[in-house]
Amino acid sequence: MGCNSCNKGSNGLPRGCNNNGNCASGSCGTFTVFDWLADISISSDLFKIVEVRFKNGRKEYFRNNDLEVSKGNPIITESEKGYDIGEITLTGELVKNQMKKKGINIEDDLLSLLRYPNEKEINKWQALIKKESEVQIKARQIAIELGLKMKISDVEFQADGSKVIFYYTAEGRVDFRELIKRYAREFKTRIEMKQVGLREEASRLGGIGSCGRELCCSTWLNDLRKVNTSSARYQKLSINPQKLAGQCGKLKCCLNYELETYLDALKDFPKKDFKVKTKKGIAILQKTDIFKKRVWYAYKDNFMQWFEFDLKSLNRMIDINKSDKEVSSLEDYTLISSEETIKAFEDSITRFDRKKRKKYAQ
């Protein structure tokens, strides 16, 4: 929290600007890269490119022509037509790593930093930011009148007012020909349409997840990776869209957090379609427990009776099958006999039938 609205409050509590990460200073954003080289004596003169962030986490890279820059300062940058104002978020050698990560060549023709903004330019920029909510409402009304299946999720003015960017979400393709004409007549400026994903929209709006905490994408997660249903299958989760979907309607990002751990653990287990050949018949895998490192098998003609094994016993049976031999029976390798399993099952059913003894005071 770096802007004045967030810092100042009564009784030592932050007042808050209620912008949910979209404040003008950009200091509440989640897409900030931690500069772990800040305290190391490496001069920023070694690398003459800086990272500048604009609204909605939009980042661009600019060449620095002998300006003394520091992280967090507003700066005027070149644009295709006119100028724009953003916040310096990263300087020095880490910028080179970020550019490499995003596939940007250092030798490409990049726009340059111009100067620091004066008071008049800052005031104009702030006035345009206040105007954005009004323009967003009007833009939504025009899109509804034209019957377009899209949602205008945010609006961003260029600092000099010569261009406005409309961020939208849509499931299919949208015909913008008439829409852009209406926008140009209404707002009297250049128009740019930029589509964003549902995950990016949810990260800007924020909210509370099913875990009871703030959304990861709106607090700390800045790498929105694709999530597949296979992530849930590997973790033995029920494929229920209502439980697996997040605020954005897509699969939850947290399904990827422990996926690598599950994949590493599953390397020690046989494949799901592996069948154990015994003299009593073929046995099929029914269940795996990667935490206890146990598996349960059942004969193909009797799925009601399961046999529990540890990995050592299972590997011995696998080695026997690989040598073109059949295992004698599952009962010879199981950890718990079938009689013990049936007795434990019966005890779990009849445990409520037992009458409790009364305790008398001595």
Mean pLDDT: 81
Q: Enumerate the spans where pLDDT stays under 50 for 5 or more consecutive residues.
A: 1-9
Shape: elongated
Strand order of the largest sheet: 2-1-4-3-5
State the helicity in percent bands.
Answer: 25-40%
Structural class: alpha+beta
| Strands, count | 12
Number of helical regions: 10
The main β sheet shows up as: 5 strands, antiparallel
Which range does the strand content fall in? 15-25%
Topology diagram in text:
Layout: H1 4-7, E1 49-53, E2 59-63, E3 74-78, E4 83-90, H2 93-101, E5 113-115, H3 119-145, E6 151-157, E7 163-169, H4 177-187, E8 190-195, H5 198-205, H6 229-234, H7 241-244, H8 259-266, E9 275-278, E10 281-289, E11 294-299, E12 302-310, H9 311-322, H10 338-350
How would you describe this structure to a colleague?
This protein is 28% helix and 20% strand. The protein has a 5-stranded antiparallel beta sheet. It has a 4-stranded antiparallel beta sheet with strand order 9-10-11-12, covered by helices on one side. A 3-stranded mixed beta sheet has the order 6-7-8. Helix 3 packs across helix 4 (177-187). It has 362 residues and is an alpha+beta fold. The chain has 5 domains: 1-30, no CATH class; 37-115, no CATH class; 122-196, GMP Synthetase, Chain A, domain 3, CATH 3.30.300; 201-265, no CATH class; 275-350, no CATH class. It has helices spanning 4-7, 93-101, 119-145, 177-187, 198-205, 229-234, 241-244, 259-266, 311-322, 338-350; strands spanning 49-53, 59-63, 74-78, 83-90, 113-115, 151-157, 163-169, 190-195, 275-278, 281-289, 294-299, 302-310. The model is unreliable at 1-9 (pLDDT under 50). It is built from 10 helices and 12 strands.
